[in-house]
């Protein structure tokens, strides 16, 4: 069983910063890609950023230059540093991890419960 626990969301003013964390726990052998998605009311969930175990990153255009994804493989944790936040960044942010379980050779995706980010103008 794998659990992803997100933290770090909250209410901030436009231009402010937040750092989201997502820690994976359970019978984990390794984690390949980890990423952050977000979903605003009435909208589809969208990818924000992703990072491979080796540290290669990918960002959607609307967060490039403002957000930074990173990870600590030893802690099975992924972070999203969000700077210069805008009201349009308001959403529930979800952590995703492609997890290889101990004793099983095929990675599978897992999701966190989501953490709310509200950016006021």
How far is the first residue's CA from the last residue's CA? Answer: 40 Å
Largest sheet: 7 strands, mixed
Structural shape: elongated
What is the number of beta strands?
A: 11
- The helix content is under 10%
Multimeric organization:
single chain
In terms of per-residue confidence, which ranges show pLDDT below 50 for 5 or more consecutive residues? none
Averaged pLDDT: 96
Structural write-up:
The chain is an all-beta fold and 121 residues long. It contains no helices and eleven strands. Strands 2, 4, 5, 6, 9, 10 and 11 form a seven-stranded mixed beta sheet that branches. It has a four-stranded antiparallel beta sheet with strand order 1-3-8-7, with no helix packed on it. Strand 7 (67-72) and strand 8 form a beta hairpin. It is elongated, with a radius of gyration of 14 Å. The N and C termini lie far apart (40 Å). 32% of the residues are buried.
Question: What secondary-structure arrangement, pairings included, does this model have?
Answer:
Blueprint: E1 2-7, E2 10-13, E3 18-26, E4 28-39, E5 46-51, E6 57-59, E7 67-72, E8 77-82, E9 91-101, E10 108-111, E11 115-120
Parallel strand pairs: 2-11
Antiparallel strand pairs: 1-3, 3-8, 4-5, 4-9, 5-6, 7-8, 9-10, 9-11
Outline of the structure:
This protein is mostly beta strands. It has no helices and 11 strands. The chain is elongated and about 50 Å long.
Features:
four-stranded antiparallel beta sheet; 121 residues; mainly beta
């Amino acid at each position: 069983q794998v659990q992803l626990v997100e933290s770090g969301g909250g209410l901030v003013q436009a231009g402010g910063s937040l750092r989201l964390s997502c820690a994976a726990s359970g019978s984990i052998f390794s984690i390949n890609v980890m990423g952050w998605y977000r979903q605003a009311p009435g909208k589809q969930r969208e990818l924000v950023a992703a990072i491979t175990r080796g540290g290669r990153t990918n960002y959607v255009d609307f967060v490039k230059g403002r957000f930074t994804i990173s990870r600590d493989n030893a802690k099975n944790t992924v972070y999203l540093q969000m700077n210069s936040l805008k009201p349009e960044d308001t959403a529930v942010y979800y952590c995703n991890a492609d997890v290889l379980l101990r004793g099983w050779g095929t990675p599978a995706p897992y999701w966190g419960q989501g953490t709310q980010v509200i950016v006021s103008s």
